[in-house]
Every structure is written in C-alpha cells, then in structure tokens.
Amino acid sequence: MIAAFVSAPAAAKSADVTSLVARDVARASAIAAGFGAITSIYRTVEHNRAVGGVVNSYHLQGRAIDVARRAGVTHAQIAAALHRAGLTMIESLDEGDHSHFAFGPVTEGSQQIAAASPPPPPVPEPPKYPHILADDHGTLRIDIPAANASGR
Fold first, then answer.
1. Residue 26 has what pLDDT?
2. Which domains does the chain have, with CATH numbers?
C-alpha cells in the first residue's frame, strides 16, 4: 500500500488562519465589551504612530483589542473571561488605563496553529413523528381504521 500526503498551498493555509483570527477577535470584542469600552482593534500605520503604538503592533493586522475597563473591573477578570471562552491570547497586557489582548496564530516549532475555539456541540436529530395531514383550513385529518362493521 502506498500512501500520499498532500498539503494545501501556503496561501490557503494563511487565509484559514486569518479568518480564524478575525473570528476570535470579533468574539473577544463581544466578550470584552461587557467589561468596558473597546477603544482599538485595527489601526492604520499613521494612527498607530499617532497614538504611540509600537512599530510591529498586532493592531496593524487587526489581531488585537484594547479595552478601557469600567471602574472596579480588573485586567485579570477580562483575561479569565476570554480564556473561559476558549480564546488563545498571544499577548495579555495590563497597560494601566486599559487592557490589551492579541490573538493567534500561535507557533509551535515550525508548525503554525490557529488560535481556534472548540467546535460547537453536535446538533441533536429531531424526533421522528408519524406523518399527519392537515387540510387547507388547518384541521387535522387522521385516518383511523374502523373497529368493526357493527360500529364498536
């Protein structure tokens, strides 16, 4: 028996990773919004420079979020909520007046692994009921066999 292994082109893998990261950033933003205001996700180079962002900021790729926390909310609370949601963070920084989080891909050795969330649970099959006909007025018609000729 001869086995052949075919790998997807690098561009296809990159597109898959990009869509997974975009999905994770969207989920993280929705979760973190419950703890404060989302103040930054994607930045242009000019805007990143104007706000004092680092040259290689994950915001330039749309892979990071900043959250201006509500009073009484800690960075650890937001990080824990993102972790419970199955999101993998590659940066989690308490920057004093706000929290910063960046998401996948995570690299292990030479292999890239997308920061993906667990798959949804399987959808149960609907119960199987016998087919019942309804007329145009919504009245149900069920064929019931006659008990016997005497009417019992």
1. 92
2. 10-119 (3.30.1380)
Enter the tokens of residue 56. 């290689």
Please state, in angstroms and as integers, the Cα–Cα distance from residue 48 to each residue in 18, 42, 52, following that order.
Answer: 21, 9, 6
* Cβ-Cβ contacts under 8 Å for 150 (sequence gap 6 or more): none
Taking a C-beta distance cutoff of 8 angstroms, is the pair 105, 22 a contact? no
ω before 130 within 30° of 0 (cis)?
A: no
* Neighbouring residues of 32: CB distance < 8 A, sequence distance ≥ 6: 38, 65, 67, 78, 81, 82, 99, 101
Averaged pLDDT in 10-residue chunks for the chain of 152 residues: 38 59 90 95 92 92 94 95 91 94 65 48 68 55 58 54
pLDDT at position 141: 55
Residue with tokens 């929290």: 99
Q: What is the largest CA-CA distance in the chain?
A: 94
The pTM of the whole model exceeds 0.85: no
